[in-house]
């Protein structure tokens, strides 16, 4: 059971953290390329070719990750995911594992919505994608609030800080449904994903595999205080991580791709009057990353 609970915190945290790093890379690229991030956009290199084949790599990753984590939760229990025991009166079994299972199923469904919107439909429904992600965060917050009802002092402090991050992320995602062009919201969202992922990984070691080899003590106030201290360190480190990614992206585009900023400036007039937005710029930054890999695939095909 301890190993299962460790994996239920560490592996989702690892996925969320790398997702935040990916978002930070796209965000930094979009901010570096555009002179005015909210209004300027640029066209992908091979627009016609990419319009024929739209593959949602992010959605596929959500489906694969959610399915693997779902299988992990199911098979980590010796007697399987039993909902109700056979005793009289019957009672529900494994409440925390069932909550983990619900979270991972929501992640899989979110990936299915992404794949359907980007690959199956003729016109991409961005509002549907964002709405599915926001709904998943709403449900996650509800599950976490219920999750802490049986928590001890150290575990309660760990999960309370996680609930704070998820609550702020819920507010940001909700605001993005009405204001998707605000770059400030995208920066905050990326930062919250990074913090949520890194803190989940830290929580796995605090609760189930302490680095010192000795469990944290609920009756020691210094242990509880250091939980908050570690969380503050995560906040600072993730902020520095985002600044570092932005600095590396800025250096890369100035030294190796100086024409990219000029191209964004030339097309500012075209997109400023039509559908240019910072969200569209993020989408096309992701699309250009796929275009950079396309020549490698075309060389290998006749």
Give structural notes.
There is one protein chain. The protein is mostly helical. It has one domain. Helix content is 75%, strand content 0%. It is built from 11 helices and no strands. The chain has helices at 2-33, 47-52, 57-75, 95-120, 126-147, 153-178, 183-207, 221-255, 259-266, 268-272, 278-300. The longest helix has 35 residues, at 221-255. The radius of gyration is 22 Å and the shape is globular. Residues 35-53, 264-276 and 295-302 have low confidence and may be disordered. InterPro entries: DUF716. Belongs to the TMEM45 family. It is found in: Membrane. Pfam families: DUF716 (PF04819). Its main location: membrane.
